[in-house]
Amino acid sequence: MLSSIQDLALFVQVAELRSFVMTGQRMGISASAVGKRISRLEARLQVSLFKRTTRSITLTAEGQHLLERALGLLQELDSIQDELGAGMTQAKGKIRISLPPISDVFLDYFAQFNSLYPEIELELDYSDTLVDIINDDFDFALRTGAAGDGAIKAIQSLPLGSFRRIMVASDAYLARHGIPRGIDDLSRHKCLHYRSPNTGKVEAWHLGDEDEMKLPASLVCNSLEARKHFALKGLGIAYLPDISIAMELRERRLTPILPQFNSRDIQLSVLWPRRKRETARHKAFIDFCGGIHLNDALNPN
Fold this sequence. Notes:
Elements lengths: L1 H16 L2 H8 L3 H15 L4 E3 L4 E3 L1 H29 L3 E7 L7 H10 L3 E7 L13 E5 L10 E9 L1 E5 L1 H7 L13 E4 L24 E3 L2 H9 L4 E5 L4 H5 L4 E3 L8 E8 L6 H10 L4 H5 L3
Helix pairs in contact: 1-2, 1-3, 1-4, 2-3
């Protein structure tokens, strides 16, 4: 394919200069080499492109037709090359990101990024279902777990910080049902549970150093937003990532319960496929993520 394009470019030069010698001088090759490549192109196309005499070279009808098409094709190739080159040096184009539902805390960050790079289009795909970053065609993914996941050769990662899952309820719920004083009290409360779309199982609560606790369920769903909503409405105790309820905690619309039993720290990282060379838009996003600190969301002041 490349040799065909190069032969087309050479053909255009011969058609414009009407001379193998002058074309060879411009291209840095011999006149005989020019003639051989034109003959090769004619053999491939099975037509004569030039009428050759000892004094002149003129285009045949087929050669004129090819010239018109070749000029358009080569201009389009130049345009594509310019666009691709701009993508490597200018921060523009689309970035597709997979995020877990806990990532609403990043909306302000994404708004900042959009203001800094208005020519970059962000496509955010929220899902609790695990995706294959490479085969599902994502540029980046936010994922819980240690950044060591990036040890996989095809994946790179950057830690953004850590969060904890905590138990919360509204003051209205606690006024009706009382405040739990210990883990054993939870068995007498209404608990809002989460069913994982990956396992199909209701997730147990990991409280403090406890491996897991199975508590009675008054409501089960596969939505973080639904559990937060029902907790705010006073329907029960929810076990939620602190970064997803930072505003509700600051405004005291949700009250932490038994904070000594918060989960261990859970790391959140941005992952991306390892590339031979990062485009300007990818590099801009990676550099921007380097300035994100999850604690800023929990303690904005």
